[in-house]
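User: Teach me something about this protein's shape.
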Amino acid sequence: MRTRNALIFVLFILIALGVVLWQVLGNGKPGGIVGAPSLTITISMAYTSDEEDWLKAVTPAFNSSNPKLPSGNTVNVVLQQYEDNAALTAIARGSYTPTIWSPASTLWINQLNSKWQAQGNNADLILRSGQYAAAPLVLSPIVFVMWQERADPFVEKYGSVDWNTVQQAVTTPNGWSAICPQVKKAACDPNWGPIKYGQTDPHASNSGLAALTLASYSYYSKPNQPKLSDLSSDQLKDGGYNTWLGGLENGVYDFGADSKQQMTDMIIRGPAQYDVVAIYESLAATQMKNAQGRYGNLKVFYPSVNIYSDHPFGILLQGSTAEQKDAALLYEQYLLNATAQQQALTFGFRPANPDVAVVNSDPNNPFNKYKDNGLQARIARTAIATAPNGDIIGQLLSVFDSQVHR
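Assistant: First, the predicted structure itself:
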């Protein structure tokens, strides 16, 4: 009997010891030394190619920093390069559901929400306000880029490089041969042919869509009173506007599908390919070094009405768990911190974090290095237009299609 009692006593001690060890060393109990194995929460981000160099520079550092959520789970970001129009189509159709979509500008978020609601959904797929609202990551306005050889006679003739003057130039019969006799100071060769304007296809590429939007704003702007919002459906139906826009867009030498490639083509092929291109400031800034020694200097000009390609960080409300959305917010905070935003400067982007200055002491900062080529650190706030809603963007594209003969 004593032996039996002793065995029961020993068994009781072992069970008690096991409980204590489980509490101290075990599975995630508060105060335990060894927590439960954490899970990896993987999120995907679809991004436009214009962001690629920056995102590939900063995202590995985020993943390797072992970022953790309050639950203790670790976050891992998978980047997926997806051009704006292709991503828009796939997401709206429901065949592709990344956690985050970062197109080149809010113009595409507005189109997505418009298509989403047209399918019978009562709310936006990517919010405009609140905790999960789409927020700018980096900024880049649209600029005109010209080789100085062409810019000097152009400015002498027209006084500025803007949508109205570019439209006048590309609709001038006989191009440079008609313009050069009116130019007295700058060198001008009548054999340069027509004025060759370049922009990307607004259906496929954001820089082309931004150019189409800005040209339309400019048409309705009055001297010293830029139109910065509220393009109306009636304005886009106006016959004078349609004719003017058709003249501009039919002067496009080539509708590229990719902004980066179009800027590369301008550098490689020189003024024989393009006289003037509407492109991102960021691409002009980063490609400036490649232009030197080829065909002279590149010159940058800012239109009187501009729009930011704001590269919004849009969290899709459907297709991800609550914890994945929290993981996306953690990644967004990282991309907006001072270190990541300063790195964006080296790729020609303006920081979206207002605490990070565009101009700093870094001699390699393109806004320091190429200011003599026309890069401007400050753009008047009053010149920045708002992104039209999705319905107006759809009508803009319809006008483009009806007027352009490709």
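Now, about its shape. The radius of gyration is 28 Å. The chain has a mean pLDDT of 90. If you'd like, I can walk through any region in more detail.
User: That's plenty for now, thanks!
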